[in-house]
Specification:
Layout (H helix, E strand, L loop, with lengths): L2 H11 L2 H8 L2 E4 H5 L18 H6 L2 E4 L4 E5 L4 E3 L11 E2 L16 H10 L2 H6 L5 E9 L2 E6 L7 E6 L2 E9 L4 E7 L5 E3 L1 H11 L6 E9 L2 E9 L8 E10 L7 H10 L21 H13 L4 H8 L3 H13 L3 E8 L2 E8 L1 H7 L3 H13 L2 H13 L5 H11 L7 H17 L4
Parallel strand pairs: 5-14, 10-12
Antiparallel strand pairs: 1-3, 2-3, 4-11, 6-9, 7-8, 9-10, 12-13, 13-14, 15-16
Length: 431
């Protein structure tokens, strides 16, 4: 039984939608969830895009309130993450001491990313505190506290928490503050505020120093750091972005002339006419997430289901992003023998592996090269270069029709992906 199917059955059995409408919230135990599926698979989504269908349809979300209990309502629980390259400060280049046990070319886990964040003094620079020391991390109980949280309908609601579990990726202390760090090495459009709020409430009762909350994303050889605060300690929904800054251990400067040089030196190989290819035209908006998936596959091949779990995707999104990578020659599917079974998994091609070994700048320009080998992107690139504007969606759709890249029912959605990829190319010069 899938998570979607399990929650559909739970909602029906306990008449959850009507009870939320009547009472404002519905409380459910882990045992009630376990009747259908393991609670650990049913109640934690770090990004809103992987919420079960019935949750998304009715704007329902879930919060843990104890070790064995949860509450459901039309909560507003997620905070959008700003796009890379928009409204950010200048990228700072930093250097790390040479340690044999640290490979900055292969930062593959959240814990490794935190280690480098500390050793490189990126965190010190971001916080303007040069004496940060790691002092705590891991799973711990939240203690007892209450808070208000906004809803999509109606007034805010009060929630009582009693020793729920929270996990802290990194806890530091310096002369002026205690720092709570949430680290990710996969790109998502938003994050669950609970990941900062529950640790914040726990440690605000333990220490006298002010608490600073940092959300970190490491992907594509770039650290993106965001500092948040809660303007009202008792209000989950009072989260506010204080500042953000990007860092890299490598040269990230790409100018418009370098992008044009790629265009001049590329040969068009693909017309993307659907009659001439078995690779679906792209339906994956975030090019950053394609790169993020490349980095995940660097470690080992994955099934579409495993990718969906790691990336907080629906399974169909895993296929969209696989096909986008296949379109560029980066991904392939092959059978891998596991426990005497042949399992189909997605892996990097030889080209994909080669690209991941490149430095940041060379990596991005090579990816641009692969994109511009496709006629539609070649045409749109020079149009954007000459006009200084990303072509409008209607213009993109006209070229898609002429090139016969997909059927008429798919054009609108896939034109959005084309627009996003062109935008990603030209945004490289802003990073």
């Amino acid at each position: 039984m899938t998570v979607n199917e399990a929650w559909d059955k739970i909602f029906k059995k306990y008449d959850i939608l009507n009870k939320i409408q009547r009472d404002g919230a519905f409380y459910i135990t882990a045992n009630q969830i376990k009747e259908f599926k393991e609670p650990r698979l049913m109640a934690k989504w770090d990004s809103s895009e992987n919420l079960p269908s019935i949750f998304r349809k009715h704007n329902i979300n879930i919060l843990p309130v104890s070790r064995t209990g949860y509450v459901l309502s039309d909560f507003k629980l997620y905070e959008s993450i700003p796009e890379l390259g928009e409204h950010v400060t200048e990228m700072q280049k930093v250097e790390i001491p040479e340690y044999e046990s640290i490979d900055i070319e292969n930062i593959s886990s959240e814990s490794n990313a935190i280690n480098v964040l500390m050793l490189s003094r990126i965190l010190d620079d971001f916080l303007s505190e040069d004496d940060n020391v790691a002092t705590f991390n891991g799973r711990m109980g939240t203690g007892i506290f209450s808070f208000n949280v906004d809803r999509y309908r109606g007034s805010p609601i009060k929630i009582d928490v009693e020793n729920a579990q929270c996990e802290i990726d990194g806890g530091m202390e310096n002369n002026g503050s205690v720092v709570i760090l949430e680290a990710k090495n996969v790109v998502h459009p938003d994050f669950h505020v609970r990941q900062l709020y529950y640790p914040y409430r726990l440690w605000s009762n333990k220490v006298k120093k002010p608490i600073r909350l940092v959300f970190s994303i490491y992907s594509n050889q770039i650290y993106r750091l965001f500092e948040y605060k809660f303007e009202d300690k008792m209000n989950y929904s009072s989260i506010k972005l204080v500042k953000m800054k990007n860092y890299s251990l490598q040269d990230t400067e790409i100018n418009l002339n370098e992008l044009y040089d790629v265009y001049k030196n590329v040969s068009i190989i693909y017309d993307d006419d659907r009659r001439n290819t078995n690779t679906p035209f792209i339906q994956a908006n975030s090019f950053e997430r394609i790169i993020s998936l490349m980095e995940i596959l660097q470690e080992e091949e994955k099934t579409v289901e495993q990718i969906a779990d790691i990336m907080q995707f629906k399974v169909r999104q895993s296929n969209y992003y696989y096909n986008a990578g296949k379109y560029l020659g980066l991904f392939e599917k092959k059978y891998v023998k596991e426990e005497e079974k042949n399992i189909k998994k997605i892996s990097l091609t030889r080209l994909g592996k080669k690209i991941l070994k490149l430095k940041y700048k060379e990596r991005q320009l090579k990816l641009v090269h692969l994109i511009l080998e496709h006629d539609i992107f070649n045409k749109l690139f020079i149009k954007a270069y000459q006009t200084g504007e990303i072509p409008l969606k209607e213009e993109i759709k006209d070229i898609m029709v002429k090139n016969n890249v997909c059927n008429s029912g798919q054009i609108d959605r896939r034109a959005s992906s084309v627009h996003s990829w062109i935008k990603w190319i030209f945004n490289l010069k802003n990073i």
